[in-house]
Design a protein that fits this description.
The protein has one helix and four strands; from the N terminus they run βαβββ. By secondary structure, the protein is mainly beta. The chain has one domain (about 10-105).
């Protein structure tokens, strides 16, 4: 028996959560969950990503747009993990984070 895994690529994206006073909700506007029904603080942004964007019940389709080439364009993207430091922060206004994406799908 031979196993097939399809064409997938695991990509790590480093980014910062930033509290500049802007509501960071994407599509889903939640009522009664966050202060003033907005996602602004670092804690609110982390909760929004972990509990709503990364939740298995969140039915969104993502596509990867590779701005410096076309290697991964128009392939499905799965949000695998979200990491952020829980103790050390560089500033009370931003937080270094890392997200793991899988591009493509298994057969």
């Amino acid at each position: 028996m031979m196993g097939l895994s399809g064409q997938t690529a695991d990509i790590t994206v480093n980014f910062k959560l930033w509290n500049d006073g802007t509501d960071e909700q994407m599509v889903q506007h939640l009522t009664g969950v966050f202060t003033n029904d907005t996602v602004v603080t670092l804690t609110e942004q982390m909760t929004y990503i972990e509990d709503y964007i990364q939740a298995s019940s969140f039915s969104a389709t993502w596509e990867f747009d590779h701005v410096t080439g076309d290697r991964y364009d128009e392939r499905e993207v799965y949000f695998g993990k979200f990491d952020f430091p829980v103790i050390k922060r560089g500033s009370p206004k931003w937080l270094d984070c890392r997200m793991g994406l899988t591009v493509g799908k298994s057969v």
